[in-house]
Amino acid sequence: MTPAARERLRVRVPVLCACAAAWILLVAGPGGTAAHAHHAAAIPGTILGTISGTILGAMPLALGWALMLVAMMAPLLTAPVRHVRDRSFARRRARAVALFVAGYGAIWSAAGAALLTVALAGRRSAPESSVPVALATLIALVWQFSPAKQSCLNRCHAHAELAAFAPAADLGALRFGLTHGIWCVGSCWALMLLPLLVSRGHLAAMAAVTLWILAERLERPMPPGWRWRGPGKAVRLVVAQSRLRLRART
Amino acid sequence: MSFTRSNVFELGGDWADPILWYARGVAAMQARALAEPTSWRFYGAMHGIDQQLWQLLGYLSPSDQLPSSALIQRFWKQCQHGSWYFVPWHRGYLLAFEANIRAEVVKLGGPQDWALPYWNYFKPDQSQLPPAFASPDWPDGQGNNPLFVPQRYGPSDDGDVFVPVDQINLDAMTDPDFTGVDSGGSPGFGGVDTGFEHGGRVHGALETQPHDWVHGLVGGGDPQTQLPGLMSDPDTAGLDPIFWLHHGNIDRLWEVWRENPPAHVDPTDPNWVNGPGSIGQRIFSMPMPDGTFWDYAPGDMADLGKLGYTYDDLSPVTPAPSPALRLQRLGVAPLAAQAMEGRTAMTRAKNVEMVGANREPLRITGSEVRTSVQLDQGVRRKVSASLSLAAQEGTPDRVFLNLENVRGLVDSTAFNVYVGLPEGANPADHPELLAGSIALFGARKATLADGEHGGQGLTFVLEITKIVDRLHLHNALDVNALNVRIVPVKPVPEAAQVSIGRVSIFRQGR
After folding, report:
1. Nearest CB to A237: which of B194, B279, B449?
2. ipTM score of the complex?
3. CB-based contacts of A20, cutoff 8 Å, min separation 6
4. Which residues of A touch B453 (CB under 8 A)?
5. What angle do CA B95, B197, B347 make, to 5 degrees?
6. Dist CA B220 CA B496 (whole Å)
7. Of B461, B464, B334, nearest to B397 (Cα)?
8. pTM of this structure
């Protein structure tokens, strides 16, 4: 293993562990969060529960949204978290990463409120209808082709310079989290709407969207334009790595 | 048949036969249309192309027919920079180019064993541009010499093209590892394993020096139009015939690094051996003179014997790098230092952490810019302790200066970086405090928000271990801050918009 690969693992392992934990909680379902279930009715606007009675329905809204975020977005954070960690003093690394994640989470929380409201409106206006899902799919497709989405994706690759000393270092890490969150929301919002509207196969939809956004983040930045953006590199990567491993065994 | 690449200054004359045949081969490739895969401009575009820039420089016109999109997708913009694929990709690129020129040479009745010469600017009296490239005329006085390009301006942008020998170095040859890290420590001799994720913002040691520096200073820029010289920008560099002789030397240095000493080895990681195809990226592919396409991977580039060529000079260019010499400098007895050397190699730097950084981004304008790197006293003491304990532990820290997020619009910008210069001192009087020299080859593209690097710029890493050792031995390391002075080779105009996001210092050790 190369030195750079070892450094990547130092971040990738805890990030993927957090991601896996979130998926386990989601899959385990209401039983896994039974302790929180009685709070759900007490929280105004437990939208997910109202929407669909999905696996998240029994959870308090914030917890459900947070779990969904960790499960879907954590794998995307390996590179920026590594940047924050690498470019901070060792004694400040945990604090800087926490501030980055806080900024990133704050943006996605705000976006979540908007997305959940839209999802609720969609479900209420057409209960048991597939029209909201079809409409959201159309929007996601248009956004997928758009130059605006490419601009957002490009900026997700930016590694901002970070101040080293407090308080500028704290502000810098937080600002990087906020900025990264904005571009991440910009590139993912339409896709994130889909699992919120799907009443059956909610987790499968989440898993599919997670893989999709992870795959498209592997692509290099490119000039914005109307074009199809798919998981081409990710597919090639999986095929090539599978071949390498097979060859190594034989 | 095996081919031998020879020093361009030692061929027997300014227009010795190998150079004359090279010029004829270049002329033949230049005569072909852009759309032909073995044309001169097609090969240039394989390194990089910015159509607007090519038009401004007169290398692309509206009447040019572009190749098919399939050919463009397969071949253009392949160059590997800021990656551990830097040297192997360029080796294959050179081999394919050389095969195309040789085919033309043979077609014209020239020698079948023709090989590409190289330009070793490090040799005494060989730093000037080879004369055949500086003359607009063929040796018979006729114009239209294909080796001459007007867009080659030199270090002072005045058309005097040479490599300033006091500003290039072979420090990369002493780097013990081929591959390094992008977290502030050594980027390695050959560059960083960038993994599956998009990366490429840190250049390897050989790429930084002498590669980038020679590109920037040979190319220079047009003082009237502010357009770059061909060699200064990755998107135009492959159009200059001297590009291939410069890269011949870089390729030779890779081989010298591997042979001297034998501990220097290429990566064995499957992702390097099998190349970018193994991580879902485009494979390396070159159009050959017989109309076929040659695909290759870095692992195919490892053995010059199998590739069928060698160099006339693969002798060591510097005294063999020795950790023992450093240990002796730090006060370890010679015999003990020798005994520790093996252990030092075994415990090569694993941990990288920041020692200090400056507080504000820097705008590089004019002829000098200063900043101060504030040190974290806890980490600074850790560095001092590792140097003091060199005799017991044998693994003193290595220390690196990082110029992070370097952005700019003019790739020919180049500057020297000094660390620890006393106030009022003339930098030229203190070569011992020269951390290194940076040329912004590739910075323009890395500055574009929608470019390949997402606008984050490049990060340059200079090893300052010797300077830190010296400060330690002079009891001058116990300080709160270290001065960093950036001295451009020529004044940097505001319009170049050159900036450094942060200047930082990292330690690499236990």
Report:
1. B279
2. 0.90
3. none
4. 157, 221
5. 80
6. 13
7. B464
8. 0.91
